[in-house]
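step: validate -> pass
step: tokenize input -> pass
step: predict -> running
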Amino acid sequence: MNLPLLGAADIEALGPTGAVDALEAALRGGLDPETAPARHHVTVPGGELLIMPATTQQVTGVKIAGVAPANPARDLPRITGSYLLLDAPTLLPLALLDGAALTTLRTPAVSALAIRHLTGPVVRHLVLFGTGPQAYGHLTALLAERQVERITVVGRNPQRADALAAHARRRLGTDARTAEAPGAKEVSTADLVLCCTTSATPLFDGALVPDGATVVAVGSHTPDAREVDTALVARSAVFVESRSAALSEAGDLLIPVAEGVFRAEGIHGNLAELVTGRVPGGELARFDGPRFFKSVGMGWEDLAVAAAVHRNSAP
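step: predict -> pass
step: emit ->
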């Protein structure tokens, strides 16, 4: 059997809008994130191995991803891996995909899907924390979904922050600049904040985020790490991919829960409920505080995007 190998170019050809549409179609088609298989974590010498299975009636798949924290210092990618896509009824392999490229497309697409339902069509001021592949990917996905008037990039490495800001200016043809961490002043005027970092501690004071603004955090997936603080969670309408995944992996929520400041019942909705309108738009419009979407990454998302890449690459 000659198994098709779908590399970065094949995955990028789907584009951010194609990936967002694939995720939305899966949820509108009845996929329940709460019953999706859990991610498995294995500690290995180079870092962490993640095994992420998922299935529908049509396709089944599994991503094996490596998280190697020391790799960037070696000029190697932090995220590695492969994705095996199979026909669900027969379990015959359909394709093998570049797992890192799939993650780079999928994660921003999840955020963009939430943004599609949480924000208006114009983002007046985006504050983007992070300067790595996910920051670039999130910028691309956001620009496919929304008009952005101004961008502030906040990063620990000034050179990398400047490079991302220059990239944003080329894409936007408008105002994009950098700010030194923690970027508190910038957050106070933002209507969208994207957190795409490896930080284990909060990036900014959540009390400064304006009412009505949206914050998206994607960088952590362990109970002891978070990019946003308790103050933000306590005053926000909170949305997650699934309650079960968030309440087992998302330190952004689990730490406030442990502090007694936030309760699991305080989650306003999961992504399926948001997409299908089971979180009433009027109810959200009446909420005075910020909107916070926390993702940890789930196998069903990889499957939905991998299947779309496979269909898109068919002759």
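step: describe -> Residues 8-28 form the longest helix (21 residues).
step: cleanup -> pass
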